[in-house]
Design brief:
The complex is a heterodimer. By secondary structure, chain A is α/β, with parallel strands linked by helices. Chain A has 25 helices and 17 strands. The longest helix of chain A has 25 residues. Chain B has a 5-stranded antiparallel beta sheet with strand order 3-2-4-1-5. Chain B is built from 3 helices and 5 strands. Chain B is globular, with a radius of gyration of 12 Å. The chains are: A alpha/beta, B alpha+beta.
Chain lengths: 604, 94
Amino acid sequence: MEQRFKGIGASPGIGIGEVVVIKDKRPRFIYQFLLNTDANQEVKRFQQAVQKVKEEIDQLKNNLSYKAPFKEVKQILETYKGILSDPMFYQATINRIKEEKINAEWALMKSLQKIEKIFGEIEDEYLRQRVQDVQHITNRILNVLNPNHKKNAQTFTGGILITHDLSPAEAIKLSAKQISGFVTETGGLTSHVAIVAQALNLPAVVGIKGITEHAKSGNLAIVDGQKGIVIINPTVEVLNKYKKKQKQYHIFCKEIGSYAHLPAQTIDGHTLKVMANIELFEEVPSILELGAEGIGLFRTEFFYIQQNVLPDEESLYQYFTKVVKAVHPHPVTFRTLDFGGDKMTAHLDLGKEVNPALGLRAIRFCLKQKDIFKTQLRAILRASVHGQVRLLFPLISSLEEIIETKQILTSLKKELAAEGYTFSSHIPIGIMVEVPSAVTLIDFFVKEVDFISIGTNDLIQYALAIDRDNEQVAYLYEPLHPAVLKMISQIVDAAHKKGITVSVCGEMARNPLYVPILVGLGVDELSLKAQNIPLIKRIICALHFKKIHSLVQKLLTMGSAQEIKRCYLQQLRIWLKDLEGFIDYDYITAEGRNERRRQENRMH
Amino acid sequence: MLTGFFRIKNQLGLHARPAAKLAKLAGQFCSEIKLIKANKEADVKSVLDLLSLACRFDEEVKLIVEGQDEEKAFFSITLLIEAEIGERINGTEV
């Protein structure tokens, strides 16, 4: 008989296959007191086991190809390594072996219990659950210590895995086998195994208590990772429906991937440039593979974070040159330091900043700490000779800031020329528009610069006076607020009148739900997290520019976000009917958005 | 000894991955590095100790770095905290 279970959809896609139920228990081992002479050898045995697990993790890490989504998976594996060498885990176990004269397994279990107890007292549920990571690692070490115990999950050869709990490392290993999906009793959307499943494109449903009791090995099962549904012994009718759905999903995924290297052109021939936001050089190969037409936002501060001291001009130059060369012939847009000042000047008493978001940061900080600013600009100017370089200044709120910055740039160019350095004669200069005053003064600003980049996250936050990290007011954060749309429209109009381009590099640019509006508003470029580039291109290709443009004109006459959303969604659902499964319509409501943001936060 | 005050700005607080990054970075220095919340303190070099401090959204923490390479350590750790989880609150201890 058909049985349905509802859990949490942890990773989209549809898996159909034969069930393999694995009731995994912690390996059995004996608790043992050691003879005096054994302690050192036992410590060694433990250390070797830890070393072996570390090597396994490294191997898993190295086997992951250089695709963007694997960045998060690698971070998770790094966390595991961190726990393995953590004093509370590693040294504490060694001490227990030595002092209490007990075997490694027992000592390890004692360390785990102590950690479980400490974590059990944590109020915050999410943090409390991180103890799972420690449990997974403990189990793995116990397995290595007792090699005769074959872990059941390792005997899995294919189909739908239904099990109590799965560690991220196990999920990665399983992906190499013929797995069509997995279901676990434990876990939530934010568990690390969910992140791994998404990166591996494995359909997964988690959090169905008791499923290992209800399902039997050999049953046929369907896993709908989007909706969080598991169907055991489906009827022929249901099975056929899901087979069709699965096929469609595969076709679309493949199709979307094929859009990576196509231009983002609407049906009626209007083309946008789609670029990537990056933080580090290491991301460059994957963004090019995903079809980025350059870097629209290079957050330069992350290189500074990697260094232990302020980098000098030469090391910045070398680093920037590497990026410029790798991305050539596409452009690299360097956003100059977007730091809060306090980080760089631990020894200066700058006074207490009650509200750092409105404080001394970005261009304000750079214009105050000119040495740091000039060093960075000189390095960028010098790197410009190796390819296409654009300069972008963050948090501009007044004309004076633009003028002063340009003056600094002019004098630096003179300086460099006098010193015999070469640099490109045409480096486009742009400003980030993210402060409402910049929108009001946009007609003045466009006369001074070569392009505009809109940072929608901050602009919305400042325009609506919403701190979206504050859950009390996050529901008021509204990208489709009429004020936001009007501001973007005003910026685009002013820029186009001057013949310069407008780019959007905030979160709006990577959300399929908002991209059509940006297209309709006349934005020329989008810069986003590279993973979303193929999908965003696919969406742009499905749009008709004239139609979306005239719809947006209509939306601009409306005074409430509710009205805008209703009218917009009605049309969008018709135009993007084929792409239904790839657009998160829940995101349009504040609750849907907050839920998604909570999930995303956990992934960073 | 260098001290700094931060407010946690990540909605999830100081969670596993930033904690692991912090611990890894801290491990590169010989200085003693502590994070203090209310009257509990954690060794920044231990990811588990950091997690058990359970720093939540909007809570204030104090960073203390003391030792031979304290300046370098303070600089790097401050940057990482700001990039990953929180914002700096300037000022001296009240």
